Amino acid sequence: MNPTLELRGIHHDFSGFRVLAGIDLSILPGERHAIIGPNGAGKTTLFNIISGRLRPRQGGVFYKQKEITRMSSYRIARLGVARSFQTINTFPRLTVFESVRSAVLSCRGSRLDLWHVVNHQESVVRETNDVLGLLGLLEKRDTPVCALSYGEQRQLEIALTIATSPQLILLDEPTAGLDVDESRKAVELIRQISEHRTLVMIEHDMDVVFAVADRISVLHHGTLLACGKPDEIRNDKTVQSAYLGSNSRVGR
Q1: pTM of the model
Q2: Which residues pair with 202 in a beta bridge?
Q3: Which of 73, 100, 113, 236 has most Cβ atoms within 10 angstroms of its Cβ?
Q4: For residues 226 and 220, what is the distance between their CA atoms, to the nearest angstrom?
Q5: Distance in angstroms (rounded) separating the CA atoms of residues 29 and 117
Q6: Contacts of 4 by beta carbon, 8 Å cutoff, 6+ apart
Q7: pLDDT tens digits, residue range 44-62?
């Protein structure tokens, strides 16, 4: 089976400060893959390289066996790669419906200044409502984004990510700032939206990681310290020493 995403020898630095040093990683179709590691390990830099926001100093990024290393983020998104961000990245003055509709339109290549016409395009409205229904946001469709709770804004961020009908979803700390109940809801949501899709997720909450991931990669000082199934990572002595801690209670 050919990988959906493949990283080959990724190196990166900022003004000589090494951030990534030779990352090799393959993500299979339909896999839910978590990337973990301490702050400064290079996780977000790796996401920026995959999504086209940065170009690596060395190495290549391949999506469905097509090299995308030097493509713009816009072109990569049009190929079927969607990304959320660690901090909420929405449009506060739009309604929930308008926000998701803009993502649906961007996927179709439609002009956003034709919204008065778009309202009469049944397929766009239907697709937007389908996304809102999946994310549990239909009741909030006419609510301004700025009036949503923090947890609801996180839901909307994920809605904007899947509204482009991606095959590869990149989620950057989707449960950051959520309480325990909101995190549990987010886990179910992530499982749901990643059905029949490939997911790569950066996450600090180990309970979330072990509840969602099929495989886990551990970054440490810009290198791939370990990669394996959840039980393998949980019991890896090197990972425990470097990141999880010898008394870690994750996954229990």
Answers
A1: 0.86
A2: 35, 172
A3: 100
A4: 9
A5: 37
A6: 27, 28, 29, 31, 63, 64, 167, 168, 198
A7: 999 999 999 999 999 999 9
